[in-house]
Design brief:
The complex is a heterodimer of chains A (about 300) and B (about 120).
Chain A lengths: L4 E7 L3 H12 L4 E4 L25 H14 L3 E3 L4 E5 L5 E5 L3 E10 L3 E3 L15 E2 L2 H4 L7 E5 L3 H10 L5 E5 L9 H9 L3 E4 L2 E8 L3 E8 L5 E5 L2 E4 L3 E3 L29 E3 L11 H21 L1
Parallel strand pairs in A: 1-2, 1-6, 2-3, 6-17, 8-15, 9-10, 9-15, 10-11
Antiparallel strand pairs in A: 4-5, 5-6, 7-16, 12-13, 13-14
Helix pairs in contact in A: 1-2, 1-6, 4-5
Chain B lengths: L7 E3 L2 H10 L2 E7 L6 H10 L7 E6 L6 H4 L12 E6 L2 E7 L4 H12 L2
Parallel strand pairs in B: 1-3, 2-3
Antiparallel strand pairs in B: 2-4, 4-5
The chains are: A alpha/beta (about 300), B alpha/beta (about 120).
């Protein structure tokens, strides 16, 4: 029991979870950070972070790695690549069961499970992932040198990456479901000014086709329902993120977008259960806001455990 | 130049050939320090002590020497990093493209190499 009981268990090892871990460990709380992937979360998805105050520019991997080292140096235990099999958040003593590692208990839990790239969920998407369909322009852009590609989406990431992909592709077609973009004005202006970028508005990809790699897509006009086919070898899906809260449904209070509802002290509706970062209901999702959430959740958890 | 991981680094095609000659079961992840690659290295680091019958290694995708993986027929349709290769007795028994989960990796290891 001694080695499997913690003051606080943090579910998620991104910016929010690691920050909470740093604050908790420094406060001498016995802390376990459980991560379903690799520590760093969405930070690792960013090649360069240039708006983190105090650091002019840093790779997302390096920032995440440094946060992980800080948390470990202060004494936090971190389990990476750990799948959660079951969890009990409602009891006074919280418990989680992890694949390959067993059962762990704690006095408080911080939910910092972050988000993941939103898929299109259309036929062929799984089959051609890595064989023409990508969710990371900076990773896979150079596979499409002098080819024609599609970028799906109308937010900041989609328009910014569409411009970036013109370094490689000879033509980039942005397919977007609305008649206007959600991106900030300067991203829109930059994309519209680029002669390699073309726009197919009020449309969506209905299906992906090919043999062992992507060869063409079917595009549906959402106003007329007309279907057209386009020969294409690369499609970048950049339509935002969805919160990783499936495992908390029916346990903590969620919005209709499945984001965790918290108070300003990052408390959920269950005593001793806090939440922080991209899995919570909020407007702005940045590394800085995740760090702020993690700080508050960490300090609130310290107070909760100390007063128990 | 090598990747910033705790895995064995393969720097040359000859180095890979040596590893394949010396080990029956080999998993090599060929990528960059990017968002789709880093999680796979993390999984391999985690599994290294558990799968003692498998040699785990990485290789920098952008080195010319990595052509031995980039141009392998098993990767001909790949367009997503990392390219991950599984070798048994020197032969490719499985290759995957793009990010993989712990479950996907252990399924491949268990079905091709046992534990």
């Amino acid at each position: 029991m001694e080695n499997t009981h913690f003051d606080v268990i943090i579910l998620g090892g991104g910016a929010a979870g690691l920050t909470a871990g740093i604050y908790l460990s420094r406060a001498k709380m016995k802390t376990l950070i459980v991560n379903e992937g690799t520590a760093g979360g969405q930070m690792v998805l960013t090649h360069e972070i240039a708006n983190y105050p105090g650091i002019e520019s840093i790779g997302g991997y390096m920032l995440g790695s440094t946060m992980r080292q800080q948390a470990q140096t202060f004494g936090a235990t971190i389990f990476n690549n750990s799948k959660i099999l079951s969890l009990d958040l409602k009891s006074d003593v919280k418990s989680i069961e992890l694949a390959r590692k067993g059962q762990f208990t704690s006095n408080a839990v911080i939910l910092a499970s972050g988000g993941r790239s939103r898929p299109l969920n259309v036929p062929g998407e799984d089959k051609f992932k890595g064989r023409g369909i990508s969710y990371c322009a900076t990773c896979d852009g150079d596979f499409f040198q002098d080819k024609e590609i599609i970028v799906v989406g109308g937010g900041n990431s989609a328009l910014e990456e569409a411009v970036s992909l013109t370094k490689y592709a000879k033509k980039v077609t942005i397919v977007h479901q609305f008649d206007h973009f959600q991106a900030l004005e300067h991203y829109i202006d930059e994309a519209k000014a680029n002669p390699k970028i073309h726009f197919v508005m009020e449309s969506e990809i209905a299906e992906f086709f090919g043999d062992d790699k992507l060869t063409h897509v079917q595009i549906k006009n959402m106003k007329t329902n007309d279907l057209t086919e386009m020969n294409i070898e690369g499609v970048f899906v950049l339509i935002g993120y969805i919160p990783n809260t499936d495992m908390f449904e029916g346990i903590v209070e969620l919005t209709d977008r499945k984001e965790i509802i918290t108070t300003r002290d990052m408390e959920t509706n269950i005593p001793g259960v806090f939440a922080a970062g991209d899995c919570t209901a909020k407007k702005y999702r940045q590394v800085t806001t995740a760090v702020a959430d993690g700080t508050i959740a960490g300090l609130a958890a310290v107070e909760y455990v100390s007063n128990k | 130049m090598t990747l910033q991981t705790n895995l064995t680094h393969v720097e040359t095609a000859a180095g890979l050939e040596n590893i394949l000659q010396e080990n029956e079961n080999v998993m090599v992840c060929c990528g960059r320090m990017g968002p789709m690659c880093v999680p796979v290295y993390g999984i391999m680091e985690e599994l290294e002590s558990e799968y003692t019958n498998v040699k785990f290694a990485d290789m920098l995708f952008d080195t010319p020497e990595a052509a031995i993986i980039r141009n392998h027929p098993a990767c001909s349709s790949f367009a997503g990093l990392p390219f991950t290769m599984y070798y048994k007795n020197g032969e490719v028994v499985k290759a995957t493209t793009s990010i993989q989960s712990m479950e996907q990796v252990t399924d491949i290891l268990d079905s091709n190499f046992g534990k």
